[in-house]
Amino acid sequence: MSKEETFKLLSDAVVSCKKDAVLAAVEKAKSEGIEPAEIIEKGLASGMNSVGIMFERGKLFLPHVMMAAGAMEAGVKLLEADMPKDAAKKKLAVIVNGTVEGDVHDIGKSIVSTMLQSSGFEVHDLGRDVPLQDFIDKVKETGASMVGMSALMTTTLPGQREVIEMLKEQGLRDKVKVMVGGAPATQTWADKIGADCYAENASEAVARAKELLL
Amino acid sequence: MGDGKRVYLTKEQILTDLRDGMADAVDLGDIPELSGDELDKLMDIITMPSRMVGVEAGMEVPVTHDIGTIRLDGDQGNSGVGIPSSRLVGCMVHERAFGADTMELGHIDYSFKPVKPVIAQEMQTMEVCQQNMIIPLLYGAMPNMGLYYTPDGPFENPGDLMKAFKIQEAQESMEHAAKHLTRDIVWIMQRMMASGADGVNFDTVGAAGDGDMYASLHAIEALRKQYPDMYIEAGMAGELMLGLHGEMAYDGTVLAGLWPHQQAPLVAKAGANIFGPVVNTNTSKSFAWNLGRAVTFVKAAVKASPIPCHVNMGMGVGGIPMLETPTIDAVSRASKAMVEIANVDGI
Ligand code: B12
Q1: Of B28, B165, B247, which has the smallest distance from its Cβ to A58's Cβ?
Q2: Is residue A81 located within the same domain as residue A123?
Q3: Hey, which end of chain A has fewer CB within 10 Å, N or C?
Q4: Are residues A43 and A78 in the same domain?
Q5: Do residues B219 and B186 make contact, with C-beta atoms less than 8 angstroms apart?
Q6: At what angle do helices A62-80 and B167-194 cross, to 10 degrees?
Q7: pLDDT class of B256 with cuts at 50, 70, 90
Q8: Domain span including residue A209
Q9: B-chain residues near A127 (CB < 8 A)
Q10: What is the pTM of this model?
């Protein structure tokens, strides 16, 4: 099977909303020696994107999207085991990451966390629907040098700006870099709210984090 | 406009909107376009100078009413006109003064479930109406499966379950609710048939998603088996069958995501006599856009349907603007287009 065919297999498996199909496709991709990052971004995430398009067109519905999301999460979990843990090595830097309050979309955010982790960062993933103050509290607690925030809806995007304002108010803005992401976020938005960087996908997020922190 | 705002468009703008609306239906439903002649005719109908239009002689179709029994009396901010009158008077006025070809008796709550505790009253009213009327009188109500979920019913609300990411539990809740809904509809209709009803009108099938349609189709099937000559009309709640469950199927066809032309054969298969296709009005688009779209969808449904189609025409459906009392220029034009271009058998 060519790499492209394997990516298609992975993507189709997510669209089928079946966990077994996704797990089988991931195993197959692994056995072909494809990098976990590529399996996720070019295969699984591209399938999730198709699911989103089909959802918008009334071909798939909320339960399907939830099942596809669950299947994709299981696929990513399977890959996490293979990603370099770097447990012994010294961590490059500490990053707090989470999905802002009011937003339960966490697939993309979790991929970003996983990729940052496997690139050698110490990541504290706060999960989804995170109360904004929790980002700040975690930064204080861990002494993190970067905070990442995901928002997948136009209605929750302003949460990213609020955290930046709160960081300022609590005298922490100069101590941490802020990275924002999620489908509705853009470079223009990041500039507007005074974030330090924006990344469109997980590998870009790793690149940006390295640029800013190392 | 779809929200009832009065706008002035040039012929070119109208034609562009007709085409765009049609293209939207073609794209979503994967159905054929209207022909050039049909678009011309739609254009003619929309631009007719008279305020009110009618179908060509010889093309008249039967007209029926849902909830009409309380349209005169009703005055709770619905489309009623608040004239104190009994349901019998409502039915008879529709028959003898308004020219309805069939009529239905409906309850003020207008869903099947709340009819259970007042079944004796419904039976008696049906009997009295039948004694005074000639046209077929059905019993009508909405399946409204939402009434079976908390806080209104016994089963946990799938909306709450989904929020907690409990998909399987949500699906099971819908399956349970569907079973109860089918059972209630059949129980109520057995009693209404015993009181002389000519049949049943399922109004807004699928309002609570695919489970609602699933339950309704099974009720139709059971009623058809028990009453071979009963008149069964099934009108839909919206153009697209929303997949709240996602995997429910009837006769091997998954219900989620079905468009009118795909719904019709299933409704017929279950045993209905009449299918009522619905196309929703987009309030931010023009009347021309909405009508082009609605006629394209309904024409495909009529073509695919083995049984007659009585299209739903009223506020916010069938190309008609979303207004409490839709304007007669839009209502009469949309109706004429449905009869002469989409070839509907009734309204
Ligand atoms: C899956 C999904 C869901 C799942 C989420 C499951 C889960 N565990 O995450 C479920 C079913 C629960 C869901 C629920 C809802 N959803 Co939803 N959902 C989606 C969908 C289809 C895909 C999102 C996804 O996972 N993509 C795949 C991942 C890999 O991509 P990603 O998230 O974009 O992440 C990548 C990048 O953005 C970036 N990135 C992400 N986070 C971060 C963070 C940082 C720091 C950085 C640097 C980068 C980064 O890197 C990631 C990897 O490449 C989108 C549509 C779409 N096409 O995006 C709608 C969508 C986001 N949902 C939407 C909505 C409206 C909802 C609901 C309100 C329900 C509804 N009515 O449809 C609820 C929201 C409830 C709530 N309070 O949050 C809308 C939002 C519209 C808007 N106004 O913005 C969308 C756009 C669909 C639509 N068109 O209607 N949804």
Answers
A1: B28
A2: no
A3: C
A4: yes
A5: yes
A6: 160
A7: very high
A8: 91-213
A9: none
A10: 0.79
